[in-house]
Write a structure and sequence with these properties.
Pfam families: EcKL. This protein is α+β, with helices and mostly antiparallel strands and about 425 residues long. The protein has helices at about 10-15, 70-75, 80-105, 160-180, 185-190, 205-225, 230-245, 295-305, 310-335, 345-370, 385-390, 395-410, and strands at about 20-30, 40-50, 55-65, 120, 135-140, 150, 255-260, 270-275, 280-285, 290-295. It has a single domain, classed as Alpha-Beta Complex (Aminoglycoside 3'-phosphotransferase, Chain: A, domain 2). It has twelve helices and ten strands. The chain has a five-stranded antiparallel β-sheet. A three-stranded antiparallel β-sheet has the order 6-8-9, covered by helices on one side. It starts with 9 loop residues before the first helix and ends in a 6-residue tail after the last helix.
């Protein structure tokens, strides 16, 4: 790995969140390995903080920087938009949702606590600047130091994990809907402006876009023994995904429109376990490409990108129903009328959005399961070649085959 990027004026960002304390010094190191994170540089910070009492203590933080060492990823992730969106989650959305739950007097076990603690942010060293530059910064608690374990992209979630995560995901989706209904002014001023449609493909050239599609179709051809029906079906699905990403229409409010994470896979889910080894708490992270849209996007993408094939094969209807019931339960606890949320209507919404997320899951397989031998040693060298190098890898082909088979089984594409 290259030298750890220097963070200029870190104290100016975190001191206002130290309850009167101040940052004295800090050390930093890379938090993630190459291939574990693409849209940002993640640094683990050990901060020495002097409290009002004079005592000095260590505080474990994470500093998130835009991809300042990789121009290719800078162009793809477009920090002018993605940094603002993620900062808005911690600066505006999380506090608003927490306040709403407190005002509705939810029991402690009902409250959604899926965001990490916020320790400040900036878009530039210039306090008067509104433009994101290469000194943009987001600081959060280090969840690993708080006992949370990151997901392992080489190991899909089993049934108990999937059930637990879906219950919390349902709360994450229900809460912004409740905020929109009960606090419309807060929603319109502090939420909606930051979550407009985002096209991650707009940073790619035509040649690069074509290479991505070629790699995907080659992957599908290998996984299906060159079955034309599946290759052409995925070609059509991927075309629909491109149309979806290119869309410019403003998403309208409906029963299922909320703040969609749009990247809710293994690496962006951290879990804490109880004494019996069962998942007890969850934190969702990496909200860079979050958008306002249908909750079905997160639901389908999570299932097909991050849950064991056997669990999907045997318990898919159970998982979908569990999410639905948890979603209704959260809305009911917030005194939001749910008469319009029929299960039939919910399933229609899932089936409407599913093909887009099947295409996304197929595209993401080569990233999620990328062989370590195909990854560069340094973050600055990451590019699209990672996907090309992973076409044909046995475990990727197996997962590709499973996604296609299960998508067809549940009528998500191909008649």
């Amino acid at each position: 790995m290259s030298e750890v990027p220097q963070i200029i004026e870190l104290a100016g960002v975190v001191d206002p969140f130290l309850n009167g304390g101040k940052l004295i010094s800090y050390t930093s190191r890379y938090l993630t390995k190459t291939g574990e994170n693409y849209g940002s540089i993640m640094l683990a910070i050990t901060a020495k903080v002097q409290r009002l009492s004079g005592d000095v203590e260590e505080l474990a933080l994470v500093a998130k920087l835009p991809p300042i060492t990789n121009d290719f990823l800078w162009n793809i992730f477009q920090p002018e938009r993605t940094c603002r969106t993620e900062i808005a989650i911690y600066k505006y959305v999380a506090p608003a949702l927490r306040q709403l739950q407190w005002e509705m007097e939810l029991d402690e076990e009902e409250i959604f606590d899926g965001f990490s603690t916020y320790y400040g942010s900036r878009v530039s060293l210039d306090p008067d600047s509104t433009r994101v530059d290469r000194n943009a910064l987001l600081v959060q608690e280090n969840l690993q130091a708080s006992g949370f374990k990151p997901g392992n992209r080489e190991k899909m979630f089993d049934l108990p994990h999937a059930k637990f995560i879906l219950k919390e995901m349902a709360k994450y989706h229900a809460l912004p809907i409740a905020l929109r209904v009960k606090r419309p002014q807060v929603f319109e001023e502090d939420v909606r402006p930051y979550f407009q449609h985002f096209n991650i493909d707009s940073g790619l050239g035509e040649k690069e876009k074509k290479q991505v599609e070629t790699d995907l179709l080659e992957q599908v051809a290998i996984a299906t023994n060159n079955a034309e029906r599946y290759v052409e079906g995925v070609r059509e699905l991927y075309g629909d995904l491109q149309k979806f990403r290119d869309a410019v229409d403003v998403v309208k409010d409906n029963l299922y429109s909320t703040i969609v994470h749009y990247d809710l896979w293994i690496n962006n889910i951290m879990l804490k376990y109880d004494d019996n080894g069962l998942p007890w708490k969850v934190k969702f992270v990496d909200f860079q490409i979050s958008q306002y849209g249908s909750l079905a996007h997160d639901l389908v993408f999570f299932l097909f990108s991050s849950v064991e094939s056997a669990a999907l094969d045997q318990h898919f209807d159970e998982l979908i129903s569990l999410y639905y019931q948890s979603f209704l339960s959260c809305l009911n606890s917030l005194k939001i009328p749910t008469e319009s949320y029929s299960y039939v209507g919910f399933l229609k919404e899932v089936h409407k959005q599913a093909p887009i997320e099947i295409a996304t899951a197929l595209f993401m397989v080569k990233i999620i399961l990328a062989d370590h031998s195909t990854l560069p040693d340094d973050y600055k060298d990451l590019d699209l070649s990672v996907m090309s190098k992973n076409v044909g890898k046995e475990h990727i082909i197996k997962r590709t085959s499973d996604i296609i088979r299960l998508a067809e089984k549940y009528n998500f594409f191909l008649s």
